[in-house]
Amino acid sequence: MIRVVLPYHLRNLARVEGEVELEVARPVTVRAILDALEARHPVLRGTIRDHGTLKRRPFIRFFACKEDWSLESPDTELPGEVVSGNEPFLIVGAMAGG
Description:
Elements: E1 2-5, H1 8-14, E2 20-22, H2 30-40, E3 60-64, E4 67-68, H3 80-83, E5 89-93
Parallel strand pairs: 1-5
Antiparallel strand pairs: 1-2, 3-4, 3-5
């Protein structure tokens, strides 16, 4: 099981508390996790990725094993710690402004 941590506003939208656990077929990639997440919680479609292009929204970041995966190819395999469920995959709402 893959453990996914969502930001507060997306947890509220999906009506979940705490981490989301997903069954994801291998290879486990950012794209595979987001596909599984959106299939389980259709209300999240378009909030993390653009509806048409499926590209990451500008103020959304992805972290795995304390490393930023936001700019990696969405088809790059995630670290074994995330695949095994020992570490969560984090979806973070970035902040901007001055």
